[in-house]
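Researcher: I'm preparing a figure for a lab meeting and need a structural model of a single chain. I don't have an experimental structure, so a prediction will have to do for now. The sequence is pasted below. Please return the structure as tokens so I can convert it later.
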Amino acid sequence: MASFSFRALRRSAIVPVMKPNMRSLVTVLAVAALITGCASAPRHTTSAKPKRATESKPYDFRGEGKVPPPSSDNTPVEPDVEEIPLSDGSLDVTEAEAPSRDTLQAPAVVDSTTDGFRVQVFASADREVAENAARAAEQRLGVRAYTDLEDGMYKIRVGDYLARPDAEAALATMRSHYYSDAWIVPARVRVPRRP
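Model: Understood. Here is the structure written out token by token.
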């Protein structure tokens, strides 16, 4: 196998023959680039460039366009909003009837919260899966299920237990029926307010 050497290439007759061909190639490429550049150059238009604003001479917006002057005839100006009177005259409330006692509702009773316990039965990173699991837990167990988002995981926790023994009794039932991996967690639980 013959080795390649640049010195041998320089001494050979190929390099002098290549140089004129290379020059003509470079010349053709330069002329093509010049023609392409001139053909794609933006054409100058006859409209004047807007003048730049300076601190001493601010920009004059009046030269932007012409706004038609207001009409000189006595045409009334139309308001943007139509005014509607509240009533034709004074209101007569003597004929108004008071609502019956049956239609009146007592104010809603608001639950308060306190420290307590819940039983965690499921966890998932997928919100939809967790919501489906919460609905299934409520149906199976007959207690309210809560979905808590902690550290990117949706955790399904059930029940509102004020004392740990109550939570442990519920945990035993849940483990024996549906949720063998359930455990008790401390939580803020709802306490129904008595009316």
